[in-house]
């Protein structure tokens, strides 16, 4: 039995998952399911990338500890993948203990190879990309490649001798198997490496959310060394003999084109240094835009992955994402295209094929699968030949990482089957009483449907399961590609008509509904302020307002919170015996000394929260200017500290 190991990137947990995260993981799931159908021993790894400056800052912005942030957001990814019914074998987190062990062993090996040395890094860094950039990769304070802001970094750092591996990397890119795909991406990365490699800074000292550098805990390991190693730790890391387990080397690292350099330059170089086999393939897919535009929260076209999963049936989502673009090309997520593919391909072609065939079986031959006869009728022979070609085409397309071609072949076989029924006209033979010919035709149609369902099950698993269920084929073996020998559908099985496989989507009806919702919202706005409407309009009762205790607090002292860029620790007099301690996200807007002695508005009956180990016992009220400065509500000395604001 062959092994097949496929990975997705592990996703940053600074925010919630979106359509791009869903895409990569769905495509990887399609491959995992297909290779399981080949009878391979498959390992499908996905997970979350939880260390680094970007995550630490996201936690600071929220005023919470990084661990709390990563626990919360990693769970969102895990929940999403469950909702999407993905079949991963492990969901890895870089905060998992076994992962850390593997990372430390990687570093130990890289050191042993003499590839790590201490020096000073001076240059640009983007926290958003967690990447270092050379001077010529920067324009107007931003990385040209990604548009992300960069900051100047000057600090002691451990370096990895990346330059040492230039020739070996080129040799790898040029090897016959073309391990970096698509070829255009291989050429891109090859040209980059050919242009010369600089050694890579692999540690930082100005923040601490990460794996401490072995023997020098002042340094925290560069997040990409940590993150990339997940691909090894996910399948057991190193065993006692220092060997990597049976699934390594990985068959496919499926990634987006944004992180090609990390996977096709840094990762293989780390592995070469550590004496570990290189992955068999790094495949970079393209980028989705939404309605023709780059997705962004500010543009309002950001598609939350949970909402996506609520809006469309899972099979349709998978079908659209795979069928719409060749793997490697960019795509445009447009509702009309999804609806069109649903209505004309899934519903009209596949859904209709299954529906009309099963109904004819029920009404012409008592709903029972007839016995198979190797007929010599030219249409039957042609259909059997077509089936074999499709099977070979699907396998070949998946080997070449062209799932859209595999799907296209399957759907065109479904079309052939519809055409076969149209041409052979079983209803005519039924009328004439030639039941034998009816049986031959319907057997061929049913067997063709079985082939379609088995081949399509990696792409549209729910529909495939319903179809196979309707033919009483419910065992794991029934899903295997090995079951595809023409005539394999057992005689005597009862044939049912499955529930509607694909509901047609009526775009006009959706538009009308949206119009109506807008009208209702308009009406609600109009009636805003009317008595008794508080629930609908979002107004609150006076009593609810009074439940919030707002007081004037006098800031007695203020200081920076160590290790946090944005936080200040305040001590404030709110009219009680003891001062309250407050952790506030004001450090970017206020110098601590300018706050001392000021009287400001604060909420004094919030449940205390712990931030960076400090218990915060009140909240300072602030309003953000367009420039991002936090302005405070000040009160003059005439008001005593602790006075209630109402
Ligand atoms: O880069 N279209 O994590 P990340 C298609 N933690 N795919 C998209 C996409 C889009 N618009 N947006 C995102 C990281 N993706 C690192 C990876 S791996 C050792 C560490 C997908 O959360 C695509 O797969 O920024 C891309 O590579 C990935 O999400 C980036 O996820």
TrEMBL record:
Pfam families given in the database record: Anticodon_3, tRNA-synt_1g, tRNA_bind
Reactions accelerated catalytically: tRNA(Met) + L-methionine + ATP = L-methionyl-tRNA(Met) + AMP + diphosphate
GO molecular function: ATP binding; methionine-tRNA ligase activity; tRNA binding
GO cellular component: cytoplasm
GO biological process: methionyl-tRNA aminoacylation
Signal peptide (residue range): none
EC number: 6.1.1.10
Residue interval(s) of motif 'KMSKS' region: 294-298
Compartments where found: Cytoplasm
UniProt keyword list: Aminoacyl-tRNA synthetase, ATP-binding, Cytoplasm, Ligase, Nucleotide-binding, Protein biosynthesis, RNA-binding, tRNA-binding
Keyword S-adenosyl-L-methionine: no
Keyword match DNA-binding: no
InterPro entries, sorted: Anticodon_Met, Met-tRNA-synth_bsu_C, Met-tRNA_synth, Met-tRNA_synth_2, Methionyl/Leucyl_tRNA_Synth, MetRS_core, NA-bd_OB-fold, Rossmann-like_a/b/a_fold
TM region(s), chain numbering: none
Principal localisation: cytoplasm
Enzyme class label: ligase
Segments forming domain TRNA-binding: 544-646
Annotated motif 'HIGH' region, positions: 11-21
Subunit structure: Homodimer.
Function description: Is required not only for elongation of protein synthesis but also for the initiation of all mRNA translation through initiator tRNA(fMet) aminoacylation.
UniProt record similarity statement: Belongs to the class-I aminoacyl-tRNA synthetase family. MetG type 2B subfamily.
NCBIfam families recorded: metG, metG_C_term, PRK12267.1
Protein's UniProt name: Methionine--tRNA ligase
Organism: Persicimonas caeni
